[in-house]
Amino acid sequence: MLKVIDIDAFYGQFHVLKKVSIHIKTREVVVILGPNGHGKSTLLKSICGLAERVEGRIEHNGRNINGLPAEKIVNRGIIYIAENRELFPQMTVLENLKLGAFSKNARPHEKKNLERVFTLFPRLKERRGQMAATMSGGEARMLAVARGLMSNADLLCIDEPSLGLQPSLRIEIFNIIKEINRQGKTVLLVEQNIPRIADLADRIYVIEEGRISFEGDSSEALNNEALKEIFLGM
Amino acid sequence: MHFSQDTVLLLYEIVDVIISGLTNGSVYALMAVGLTLIYGVTKAFNFAYGSFFNLGGYCAWILIGMVGLAGGYFSIFLAVVPVLFVVGYLLEKVLVAPLRKYEDWENKVMMMTLGLALFMDNLYVVVFGGRVKSLPPILEGTLEVGQLVFTYLDITIFFLSIGGILLFGWLLNNTRIGMAVKAVAQNPEGARIVGIPKERIFAATFAISTVMVGFGGILLSQKYFISPMSGGAIMVKSWVITAFGGMGSIRGGLYAAFIIGMMEAFVGWGFGMSYGMIALFILLLTTLVVRPQGLMGKS
Amino acid sequence: MSFKRMATVMGVTFGLVAVAPLFVGDIRFIMHILIMCLIWAVVASCWDLIMGFAGIFSFGQVAFFAIGAYSSAIFSVDLGVPAVLAMVLAGLFTALIGVLVGLPCLKLAGPYVALVTFGVHMTLMPLLRGKIGMALGSGGSVGILTIPPIRIFGYSFSSANLVPTFYLALVLAVACTAVILVVIKSHWGTAFLALKDSEDFAMSLGVSAFKYKLMVFALTSFLTGIIGAFYGHYIGMISTRMLELDLFCTLMVMVVVGGIGQFPGTILGAFITVIANELLAPLGTYRAMVMGALVVILVLLLPNGVMGFWLKPAEAEAPAASSA
Questions:
Q1: Which residues in A lie closer than 8 A to residue B192 (C-beta atoms)?
Q2: Is the N or C terminus of chain A more exposed, i.e. has fewer CB atoms within 10 Å?
Q3: Residue ranges with strand state E in chain C
Q4: Interchain pair A100, B176: CB under 8 A
């Protein structure tokens, strides 16, 4: 579904990604691991049209989307869910969700997706009149993921969803991601470490210093001692 | 109770001042909301705001000169509003948007809009001459309630301004584009993520505020004059009001507009018109010292 | 830009200007223009220092210029203080006002500073023209008409002897811009660069943003005040006309032409703008329009002003974003 072919990404003078290539098949869960600041978020942002400068090809269903503005990429069914959540603070949960369905391809499915989101996140349904600014870290994270789902995207690029969450919430969020995948969505996930990764990921990439240093499926990852220690939380 | 003749006259004078303050305040409110919109959404400092105020007045003046008032003022509004929208939209796209890529874009936008104001104001002088113009009032005549006399003009200006603000408020809260504007104002990155076309929203916001301030220009120019070089003073006044109210707060801007409208009317009545500006700044300065974020701005 | 580079540009520019009287020394008109260029070069450079370098949205330069001019004039006319001393006192007085204005401003976010400083400018005019101003000796709407020229050892520097006055102006301009150059390249300068890059980190190292910004306010007001005073003693008369938007916008053009934050671009900017202004004079009423259009075009097309012509984008100092 998505092919990233030899891209270089820059932040001002910084050469963040160096000839990075990954691919994602429909309905896969692909996880990107790696130390902080080595380019994981930049990779996701590059795919979603939110990065500063990206050279190379990014093919979505055969068409090069590198260079397209973010709103067009959202329209094509690719959504970014930020580590910082980037919610609208003075709007209610419901308003945030409705804005999630802003793009043209999302609007006709707004009602359906709202129901889906409320089923997946019952807590959000309870608090739908609450201001986003008053939400706790975990709830805000849920809202960010839920808002991403409202875009009716087929590919969700989720950036460190478990960051800063307490362990019980982390497990909950990974379960929700699993469920979302089960419902047919493709997921590209960035994380620092994931317990029980075999459960979640189909394939894993590791980015170090802006380059892919490992590529394989989860069993290969589990057999790799170095990886196990650093990234798989074991 | 028995008031002396002098006291009664004084009271009537005061009522006059209050009405003037309210009328002006309502137009200022319109202008303040427009400016809060631009600043709140695009964070840009538009120096040419006063020149846009006059743009509205001059456009109306040209139209009335060409076709007269046969269709009533309503037709004038109908014609001028789209012009203002288009001008605002194009200006943003062509002149402001290209500057956003720079790190010091706020400085550059300030400088550019200052140049734009200089250009527009002197363009007015060249095209319309240096003398002031006035617009015919939308409604002539007066309304007498007991001993009090109101002009229909003041009443109309007041209600049209309030109407404009209410319409704007409705659009902001009940339309998709309104939600998008609020979203961009609250979190531009979040807006991008969600697929809101930020650039187009910026341009639309600029356009809407141009319409609002231009409309205010048409209204107030019926009561006072259109003066080609008054752009600077109008801009400063709008900014003072917006800053006083708190740069990002629409409600703050509304309160500020009426407070300042009233204050200006009373200072003018008591001390003379030239002291209005000084009083304005004293008010602003003292407020900012006590409350740096303005009346209702976020700290 | 390195110190060497900046100093070279300044040296060449001032050097060329210095030899001008050899060729045009007897053309009064040109000499006068050159003196004005030197005066504006200092004011514009101060504005660039505070806005482009320190990132403070101050619009008070012209106001400080006027305060310097008026205070020096009042000191010498009403109090009989010799011109040179009056100039220095005026500079100090303006610096004081600068600090008083700066104190509340620096706690405010970007556009508020612009508003407040512009407000100082806008209120200065009615103040000087009104009763309060007249009580202080401002001469109301007429202004002050008989300002004594600068006298050094009995020699009078006035429009009667333009060439010596020109050299005096040159010395003053060189001194002031040299001070600015030194500030930019000194530890103040490094402090500002650090603040630009990361205010929190710099502050954790003990760099006090507030202190440095206030000092910049004081310095630029001081220099502008002195030059304003010089202007008064040179021309011999001042009025509130100097506070009109025309001058304000012309100064802004100089800064834009020179490149915001690209010192010493503003020196070149001042010369280019004054000359352009004179060349455009025959356009009469169209002149201001053209100036306005030029500003717009320049900001859009030449973001680094004239310095952009021989600086690669990477070399140019990243101008300070507003410290909002």
A1: 50, 70-71
A2: C
A3: 150-152, 155-157
A4: no
